Amino acid sequence: MRNIYIAIALSLLLPTFALAQEEGDYRRSSIYSICISHDKAKYTSEISDVFVSMPTPDKYNNHDLNIKLISSLDKKESEADITKFLEANNVARRVVALWFNRNSETGECDIEKVSERGLYDADYFDVELSKQTIRGEAMLKDAGEELINNTFVLVNDIRYVDKEKSAKVASGIVKGLGVVLGAFFGSSISDLANTIGDAVEDIRGFRVIVTSYLYQLEWNDEVANKFYTDYYISKGEVNPEKAKAFNEDNTTFKLKFVGSKRVDSGETSYAGVFEPIDMIRKVCTRSIDKSVLELQRTYEQFKVKTPIYSVDPEITAKIGMKEGITDASRYEVLEKYMTEEGLTEYKRVGVIKPISGKIWDNRYMATEENALGSDLTATSFTKVSGRAEFLPGMLIREIK
Fold this sequence. Notes:
Elements: H1 2-7, E1 29-38, H2 44-53, E2 60-62, E3 69-72, H3 79-88, H4 91-99, H5 112-117, H6 127-130, H7 134-146, E4 151-161, H8 164-185, H9 187-203, E5 207-217, H10 221-231, H11 240-247, E6 255-264, H12 276-298, E7 306-310, E8 315-317, E9 330-338, E10 344-354, E11 379-386, E12 395-399
């Protein structure tokens, strides 16, 4: 393990008190998102294209592998089917390899990603680590527990709900209106209405049902020790035996099924939508956001922390309706500590609640539809309880 300790560098100047940090300067969980593509279903290619272009969910690090789509016949997949696929394709092992920027040919690894996401100073003189001190080991363990263990795989089954009949009724109304307007203003208005009507026929009532399956990487002392001892190859080191052993290990690295959620997109406003693909993108993006939110609220390990952005004149944070904030929401304020052993801990120092009328509508395309609160850039909060003063960079997390 000596090479690992030398490779990782953590600032040893951090004492055991609350750590100040910039907005965005905090440890995020990592996520790899996949979509099941139903080859024979309507709008499959459009939904797949939209999914591939979606950004990584806010507050998570992008840990995507090359494969983003799983092709499927139009059958109902189960958790067992998805688990079997993930295991057969050694997704857990590939996720671990990505953490260490592993070269698939030589097996060479580095700690750059762990350093970056763990907020370690990779260039700091690493005396404690190179000497394999207790503190150095604690730092390495902290990185594993706080970062690698909080790696998730999210498999999304997006199914279009056919609303063809109701869509045609709606488009007929628009076309009929065009005929009336054309009698007064000329045929161009009627032609325009017919064009709009054709688009409405495709997008009016567009709806999907998303079932999301959440998995978490199993990373513990036993798995970590085996990886560092048997598989880790430092830059410049040649060890084909270790490289081959990792590639053939189909049992050490595993994904644990956490749970699933099924959400219905429901009716979505098409304000601000000018092309059918815009509506598909809007519905699918908001549905995935809703699914992620439900998973966060149900499974503690998937919850995210968000830094306080400002405290004067009001407490603000860069979250809003996309994260499910309502007038009834409550958030605990967490202060980050580092113990003498180098482990990260969080302590609740207060509770805040959003200010009514100052909740940011940051849902996808909220600005285009001129939604209330879409002109804000953050949500404002007021203190419910806690210390006299909160500071920018302190983390908040939703509580029930």
